[in-house]
Design a protein that fits this description.
The protein has 86 residues and is of the alpha+beta class. It has one domain. The chain is built from two helices and four strands. Strands 1-2-3-4 form a four-stranded antiparallel sheet. β3 and β4 form a beta hairpin. The radius of gyration is 13 Å and the shape is globular. The two termini are 23 Å apart.
Length: 86
């Protein structure tokens, strides 16, 4: 199930995001250990996404999503908090 919310980390930014666990079939078996985060940058109708399966770092999120480091830092923290990955 996906969740949509406004993330306001307290630094003046406002992120319209959709996130949740993404079931993925691998060789006929169902896996649910992939986490999907989409940043709906374009007025809520489009944006950029990343799917991860372990703890992420801002540099990884920045590279994969094509975004700046500060935005990537906020989104990486959000992913790691929501997933519990350390």
């Amino acid at each position: 199930m996906m969740t949509r919310e406004q993330l306001q980390p307290g630094n003046g930014a406002n992120y319209d995001i959709i996130y949740g666990w993404a079931p993925c079939r691998v060789k006929g078996k169902v896996r649910v250990d992939l986490f999907l985060l989409s940043w709906m940058k374009n007025g809520g109708s489009g944006g950029v996404s990343v799917i991860v399966s372990q703890k992420v770092y801002p540099s990884y999120v920045a590279e994969k999503m094509g975004i700046g480091y500060e935005d990537a830092r906020v989104l990486a923290e959000f992913i790691n908090e929501r997933t519990g990955w350390k």
